[in-house]
Specification:
Blueprint lengths: L1 E5 L5 H15 L4 E5 L10 E4 L4 H10 L2 H10 L4 E4 L1 H6 E3 L2 H5 L8 E6 L9 E6 L8 E6 L3 E5 L4 E6 L2 E7 L2 E4 L10 H8 L3
Parallel strand pairs: 1-2, 1-3, 3-4, 4-12, 5-6
Antiparallel strand pairs: 6-9, 7-8, 10-11, 11-12
Helix pairs in contact: 1-6
The protein binds glutamine.
Length: about 200
Amino acid sequence: MKLGVIAIQGDVSEHVEALEKALEQRGEKAEIVTIKHKGIVPGCDALVLPGGESTTLGKLLIREGIADEIRDMNEACKPIMGTCAGLILLATEGDEQVRKTHQHLLGLMDTRVNRNAFGRQRDSFEFQLELPFLDTPYNAVFIRAPGIVEAGKDVTILASIDDMIVAAEQENILALAFHPELTDDLRVHQYFLDKLF
Ligand code: GLN
């Protein structure tokens, strides 16, 4: 089994570490590969699109030829988890800012996103989030977080804060507005790995 983490920019090592710990916790073995270039995604069984800066990430994913490989991976229904900027990239539609700047999106999930949904005053915050696959709340870390403002019928909403959707699923895709790699709680990574093992 091979797990890929897009490593063009953003919090890559934290995801790698969380996946390593989660694998160890469940007594499974898998190779974890970081991806900067074309040619590696097709060999992966699951993929993580980390947080970072979605404009930069989007541009580089296309320039490196990785964007099309991710689309193929999605066609093959392999598990993909996008966190924060990853959630933005997965969307089919963005906000005014995204449209104006012609920002590249992968368009794999039937969602419309707001890139900076929680505004300046709430740049970073933590929230005890109820997730349907967990028994107790999850301490979710939000950093300049996006949100999903509209979701199509194939999207399952997992969690919202006020009217903003912050966790959602569409078939093989899991999109989170927060950073599960920044806490010691491995339950979200475990939920993602449940799709593989
Ligand atoms: N809001 C940021 C963006 O537009 C994402 C922030 C993050 O990934 N921590 O790219």
